[in-house]
Amino acid sequence: MPEVVRLCRQYDAYLMVDEAHSIGVLGETGHGIEEHFDLPPDCIDIKMGTLSKTIPSAGGYVAGSAKLIDFLKHEARGFIFSAALPPASAAAAKAALEVIENEPERVHRLNDNYRLLAGKLRAAGFDLLNTETAILPVICGSLENGVQLAHYCQQRGIFVQAIVAPVVPEGLARLRATVTAVHTIEDLDYCADVIIAGGQALGIIN
User: What is the pLDDT of residue 115?
Assistant: First the structure.
């Protein structure tokens, strides 16, 4: 990211970043990708993200300069033809942001939990790509392996989803396993044991 920022400044290019997996997760206080890389808070021109992951509501957002936002309000079809967030959803998103601001210990606990589960799965032989966030892509390979491993986990009380082509490239079907700050060590140990046992039974790992 620092090199991308440098190149954008060198060539006078706008930088847009999707923070769907980083707000409330990355950085010492959960402020996202800039804080994670110790970058200045104005180095990203356009930030977009979701209000349905770390912030448990609905919808999404785009943040940028006042000039940019004014332009989008008048030119972005997705905004023009969309309804406003229901007040309850807006209030839930606001409350979640306040929790992130006021309770940074949740961010630390979330990252401890991510490291615990990711470490166990990697040690067992699973490929998690280069993820550093709490949404783990557990690579299964074929579509059949992804669907079968997801079913194996669901039958044992673990809710994971199989993500398959064309959402991801052929041969990179995966489970999407999401860690939260309220998972206990016992929860994560059980989850790891189930995924590993299923992976071994299907021949995904040895």
Answer: 96
Highest mean pLDDT among 20-24, 54-58, 61-65, 188-192: 188-192
Type of residue at 41: P
DSSP string covering 99-137, please? Answer: HHHH-HHHHHHHHHHHHHHHHHHHHHT---TT--SSEEE
Q: Which fold has domain 2-102?
A: Aspartate Aminotransferase; domain 2 (3.40.640)
Q: Is the dihedral of CA 19, 23, 25, 30 positive or negative?
A: positive
Model confidence over 95-110: pLDDT tens digits? 999 999 999 999 999 9
Give residue for tokens 């930088």: 15
CB 125 within 8 A of CB 205: yes
Q: What is the pTM of this model?
A: 0.85
Give the domain ranges of the chain.
2-102, 105-201
